[in-house]
Amino acid sequence: MNLTEAPPMVPETATAAEPIVPSKRRASGLGLVFGAIRALVVDTFRQAVASRLMILAVGLAGLGVLACLSIKIDGPMSVKVPDEIELVNRDKKPLTSAGAVLGRMTLGFGLVKVPIFRDVKSEVGFLEAVIARWAAGVAGTLLLLASTAGFLPEFLKPGAASILLAKPIPRWTLLTGKVTGVLVFVTLLTGAFIVGNWVALGIKTTVWAPGYLLAWPLLVVQFAGLYLTSVVAATCTRNTTVSLFTALACWVICLAVNHGKDTLDVVDGSPEHPQVTRVAIQAAYWVLPKPLDFSKLLDQAVRASEHFAEAADPDEEVTGGRVGFGLSIASSLAFAVAMLGIAARQLSTTDY
Fold first, then answer.
1. pTM for this model (two decimals)
2. CA 118 from chain center: how many Å?
3. What is the enclosing helix (H) or strand (E) of 112?
4. Which residues of the chain have pLDDT under 70?
5. Integer Cα distance of 240 and 243 in angstroms
6. What pairs with residue 161 in β-bridges?
7. Contact yes or no for 183/333 (Cβ under 8 A)
8. Cβ atoms 344, 232 nearer than 8 A
9. Contact, 183 vs 220, CB < 8 A?
10. Residue 146 CB partners (closer than 8 Å, separation 6+)
11. Residue 176: other Cβ atoms inside 10 A
């Protein structure tokens, strides 16, 4: 080799570039994850629009808001006895003045006329309590579970999943994106129903009860805990029916455990309940979602105890303070996160 020849040139940036490349890869990888989640959220909205059951859910929510807009209430001065449950008194009769009907409510823009014995404010509170407890709390949750049960099984079908799983994206990212899309859609739909009813009743009656709006987050949290159990079933079976019945079975079990916990609180120290039973129910209560606690929180928000006898807690020292705490909500959210982790683990070990 001629000493006068210049040695082969080595790029001066090679050494300096080495620590930069990994950071760029990390940045691009993180962006890929968030981009995938965002795309899956959008895809879930498209799937929801194409779903007939979801179209039914949206339609019923719109009808609920329209029904509230069709209401007109002509009520009297307040007839409710202080500290008395409105619909139940000693004679098991409505609390009216000399038994006379003192007001009228029209529905369907005047098509249906209903006599009432409440003043306007009490009647609006009664309607909001019924909507929150039954229309949204029971019927709404059931309809949403049925509408969304097929989203994950459809997404995880071998034909569609094999294409998605072949991409350089962690499987947990795909699952998280799909679940996030469902929860975002349900949150918006629930919010549209609750806020829409609240605004419609406020416009028609000039009565604005902000406590009713707490039904929105409470119902979403309750739905999330139940829905994530169907997600676990979907990753195991990829069957819509199994996913739906898993969520419904979880709902029934949680109701039973929640009721058992409340019963044990009332009869604390009773020899009829062995210590093993008490410990098991206590443990299950803190692990599982708490639908009865959510119902009681919802009743407190809409002041349902002023209208329904069963909403009044006869043992305030036992249950009144506990329901007011955020532990019920926090533990229910923790259950949903745990179910998501189990579903992600199951998906990561599934062969396609």
1. 0.81
2. 31
3. strand 112-116
4. 1-29, 75-102, 159-168, 267-273, 309-325, 352
5. 5
6. none
7. no
8. no
9. yes
10. 53, 244
11. 18
- Copy the structure tokens of residue 331: 């533990």
- Joined tokens for residue 338: 């745990």
Give the phi and the psi of residue 105 in degrees, each rounded to 5.
-125, 135
Give the Cβ contact number of residue 274 at 10 Å.
9
Please report how many Cα atoms fall inside a 13 Å half-sphere around the Cα of residue 51, on the Cβ side. Answer: 23
User: Which two structure tokens, joined as six digits, stand for 95?
Assistant: 């609390």
DSSP string, 232-271: HHHHHH--HHHHHHHHHHHHHHHHHHHHHHHHHHHTTT-T
Cβ 140 vs Cβ 119: under 8 Å: no
Write the pLDDT tens digit of every residue in 281-327. Answer: 999 999 999 999 998 888 888 888 777 766 655 444 334 444 446 88
> What whole-number distance in Å separates Cα of residue 210 and Cα of residue 228?
29
| Inter-axis angle of helices 20-50 and 52-69, nearest 10 | 70
Q: Which two tokens stand for residue 113?
A: 């006329």
**Joined tokens for residue 306:** 């002023």
Q: Which one-letter DSSP state was computed for residue 5?
A: S
Please give the torsion angle defined by the CA atoms of residues 163, 164, 168 and 170, in that order, rounded to the nearest 10 degrees: -140
Amino acid letter at 326? G
| Type and span of the H or E element at 74 | strand 72-74
Kind and range of the H or E run holding 158: helix 158-165
